[in-house]
């Protein structure tokens, strides 16, 4: 690691600590040339795929957007925040294990609908009614009959 003060290429690790959650490692380092100390943080760099929208634009996967959409569908429903967090974790795990660089927004929507269907049927119908943009009542009726 290069010293940010004098740009010397060698530093010595003086102290190492893990965060309480275990997802970050904090290290105190000392430059072997100028003797100044610096703190560094190490965390896993997870490569989630980019989401390709219907118009062809690409955006970074944002779990906060997924959470917002799910919470809107789950509004006034008896589902805990912990259940939503677990569902988002399962979605992220599927994305990570797929090793895909890009993900069509339609596929992401299907993953969200699958999780909502497991948690709450009403929320699933709410999300699907917006996500699938039904053209007529018969399509909506078919969705409800499928559940």
Describe this structure in words.
- This protein has 147 residues and is an alpha+beta fold.
- The chain has two domains: 11-43; 50-146.
- It is built from five helices and six strands.
- It has helices spanning 63-73, 81-98, 105-119, 121-131, 137-146; strands at 11-18, 24-31, 37-43, 50-52, 58-60, 102-104.
- A hairpin with a 5-residue loop joins strand 4 (50-52) and strand 5.
- Helix 1 packs across helix 4, helix 2 (81-98) runs antiparallel to helix 3 (105-119) and helix 3 (105-119) runs antiparallel to helix 4 (121-131).
- The termini are far apart.
**End-to-end distance, in Å?**
56 Å
Strands ordered across the widest β-sheet: 1-2-3
**How would you characterize the largest beta sheet?**
3 strands, antiparallel
Number of DSSP-assigned strands: 6
Instruction: Report low-confidence residues grouped into runs of 5 or more.
Output: none
State the domain count.
Answer: 2
Specify Rg, calculated over alpha carbons. 22 Å
Structural class: alpha+beta
Q: Helix count?
A: 5
Q: What percentage of amino acids are in beta strands?
A: 15-25%
Helix content: 40-55%
Element-level helix/strand string = EEEEEHHEHHH
Give the averaged pLDDT, no decimals. Answer: 88
Shape annotation: elongated
List keywords for this structure.
147 residues, alpha+beta, 2 domains, three-stranded antiparallel beta sheet, three-stranded mixed beta sheet, 5 helices, 22% strand
């Amino acid at each position: 690691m290069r010293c940010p003060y004098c740009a010397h290429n060698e530093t010595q690790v003086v102290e190492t600590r893990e965060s309480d959650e275990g997802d970050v490692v904090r290290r105190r380092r000392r430059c072997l040339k100028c003797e100044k100390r610096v703190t560094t943080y190490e965390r896993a760099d997870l490569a989630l795929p980019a989401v390709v929208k219907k118009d062809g634009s690409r955006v970074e996967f944002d779990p906060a957007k997924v959470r917002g959409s799910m919470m809107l569908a789950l509004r006034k429903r008896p589902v805990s925040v912990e259940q939503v967090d677990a569902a988002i974790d399962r979605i992220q795990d599927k994305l990570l294990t797929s090793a895909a660089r890009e993900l069509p927004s339609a596929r992401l929507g299907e993953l969200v609908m699958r999780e909502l269907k497991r948690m709450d049927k009403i929320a699933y119908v709410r999300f699907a009614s917006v996500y699938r943009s039904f053209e007529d009542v018969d399509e909506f009726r078919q969705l409800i009959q499928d559940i």
